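Q: Hi! First time doing this. I have a protein sequence and I read that you can turn it into a structure. Is that right? Here it is:
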Amino acid sequence: MFLMLIQFLAKPQDTNNLLLELKYSNEKNKALILNKLASANSQSNYTKSLALGMAALHLATKYDQQNEQYNAYQNIAYSYLQQDSLALSLQYYNMALDKAEEIGDSVFIARSEFGIGSAYSHKDYYDKALEHLINSLKIIETKYEKKEDTVMNAQRLSFITNNIGVFYQRLNNTDKALEYYKYSLELKTKLNDSLGVANSLNNIGLIYGTRGEFGKAMSYYNMSLRLKQGINDKSLIAETIFNIWELQIKQKKYAKALEYYKNAAMTSDLFSNRTKILMYNNLAEIYLALNQTDSIYSISGKAIKLAKKINNNELLSKAYLLRSQYFYKKKDLKNAYKYQNHYLKIHDSILNKEMISKFAEMQSNYEVEKKEKQIAILQKDKQQNIAKLNKQKAIKLTYLVVFLIILFVVVLLIIQLRNKQKQKQHFLEKQNTLIEQKLLRTQMNPHFIFNSLNSVQGFISSNNSLKAMSFLSKFGQLLRNMLENSRENLIKLDTELETLKIYLDLERERRENSFDYSIALDDNVNAETVNVPPLIIQPFVENSIKHGLKQMKKDGFIKIGIKLENSLILIIEISDNGIGFEKSKQISSLEPFKHKSLGMELTSERLAIMKRSIGEEASFTINEIINETNDVCGSRVVLRIPQRKI
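A: Yes, that's right. Below is the predicted 3D structure, encoded as structure tokens:
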């Protein structure tokens, strides 16, 4: 996670003295003291800090204290960020930025830009985060180059550059991360900040280790370790020892890594639970590599127990995978598959939670941005009206003409603001439609994954290990394609067909080749240039397999034909030689557990939203195929996707 924002190097306050000062001060001075108290509680009591910030904002607004209004916005935004309320945090950081620009204080502006960047980075919105972090860096860098308040701006600059280094490290951009870490190291060296230098050296060592430059990594770790030993902070020393140990594992120097493990284990009581789990998992990997399997079961057991305790599914899935590999080396395939299945289930649940979190955040951000703009407009209107009323009281009768001119200008401004509001409302409605499309597309992902996992489980339960491994390999490719495609609004037709073929092959293999299929493209269809929404064909194919061909033990067939109509409408026809739509419904109604076609339902909603978005019909029809003797011999789906505007 991105380094915690610490209020742009704000200094802690003595809360006891502040409380006494608050008690005996007059009301006009209380906003300043309340803001200091909010800042003092920002690291320990987020709820209290938020309440203090709100109280400070009320008094600062009442007495028109611009600087304290700004500080209150900052304190409130930071408190919401620590409570993981990104939307509210961004709302108040943006209000702080507006106030800073109104005041004209460049340090205030830089502080707000940094806060907004940190908030976006906290939730992995990297493009927006980087934009605001760089804005903050430019402002402070300019002041530093002009030698304004040199020491304080050097501290601010070293803090910002270090955080940007962490940001690039998370994006695996090691060149940029190294550039900013070294910039921060240079500044901390000039400031004689021993602890800061030690941490920067450690960060640079991490980058070189990631790049495989192990000699350089070890050199920086040793320099960091010497400084930390001089400071005599055991927790910091333990951190670097742990990093050196991981470096030995990356170099596959397992015997030497075991020696470092003894040093790391001596300080393990200083580690966080997460670091302890990493230590257990790393140790299990070493023993696997050395074929020393006796201790792996108990070590992975410790990792599993602790990961469950802190509810860390990512590290728990890793521990299950290591235990699966342990049983595989022991040639105990039953338990190997058991723990492999545990790993897959948890890994899949992590993906699903991330998807749910992402589309919930998208919707939340949309609502907040809408409210932000409305609040900003109302506040500006309110401030303008107050200013005009104050001026009216001071203006004498002789300046009536000037007053009328000003009033006329205000009316024009209000009309312009209303026009802009209408334009913004239209834009937001369009954005809402796009977000709905993304949400539905995101819901298709877990639906597709869970249906495919049924196929995997079928082979594993039959104890056919060779087919299971082959099937898992194909399923991995299918999952990779599906996750990559799901990021896009549209993908090329050939990419969609590639994923569809893998799915059909998996289903055909699972159903013991009871059906075959064909995919035919008309001559006027170029699959490399035609665009389609991802996973748009699969639900119809799934429906044919699960319902139309369900009763057929052999000779089932699915035919997929694709053509362009007038170069504007893509026609996709999916037909099968099954029992037909009506008979399938009758059979399904008699089954004790009815299969709900979630894929078909989501596809209908996606096509409806597409129609609203582009103004053209996007639809599908389902009909039964009747032979010459008026008997039902299958079903046909015709899917129509417009190409002109999508």
